[in-house]
Amino acid sequence: MYKLLLILLMSMLWLGAHAAQADQERAVRMLFEAKHAVNRAAHAAAQQLDEEELAEGRFDVDEERAEAAAREYLQENLRLDEQGRPVQGSRLKAAVIIEAWKVIGQEQSFPYIYRDSRFGYEVTLDRPGVVLIARIEHPRLFSVMEPIVWHVKGAAQLVLPG
């Protein structure tokens, strides 16, 4: 009888460990997906040329179009609605919040060093570009565990022709 109880206890322990490992793998996969989405959004935003500046022969980022492009890429890649909330089919359960957004334009001197002590982030840009930091919350498999919260960081600079 005690062997049967031992087998049941060990089976429960093994299943719990297996479920915890599966939860960890889901979280890592979501982190990679989120990082790729933020990088794509930052890159798309950095490529939005200011047409008035371009007419004058200067390359600069159009702030309004850059923000729209970044939001669109985040929506498409993470399956979000216009307010950043997950839609059906998304792996996320909470809204994605843009914690930091900065367009670095020609008014800055380059190389430009962006620093954000809140997130321990620093990046150097050699040309106009954007910095994007998004707060992404990943739900855990077990509801008794707190969700994982990441501040996913991305930066990109304008790719010049030639």
Structural key phrases:
162 residues, alpha+beta, three-stranded antiparallel beta sheet, two-stranded antiparallel ribbon, 5 strands, 23% strand
Note down, in words, how this protein is organized.
It is a single chain. With 162 residues, the chain is an alpha+beta fold. The protein has one domain (29-157). 41% of the residues lie in helices and 23% in strands. It has a three-stranded antiparallel beta sheet, with helices on one face. Strands 2-3 form a two-stranded antiparallel sheet. The longest helix has 45 residues, at 2-46. The mean pLDDT is 88.
What proportion strand? 15-25%
Q: Percent of residues in helical segments?
A: 40-55%
Summed up, the helix count is 3
**Which word captures the global form?**
elongated
Please state the CA-atom Rg, rounded to the nearest Å: 21 Å
Which structural class do you get from the secondary structure elements? Answer: alpha+beta
- Uncertain runs are none
The SSE order reads: HHHEEEEE
Got a strand count?
5
Return the domain count: 1
Strand order of the largest sheet: 1-4-5
- Average per-residue pLDDT, rounded, comes to 88
Q: What is the makeup of the main sheet?
A: 3 strands, antiparallel
For the terminal residues, how far apart are their CA atoms?
78 Å
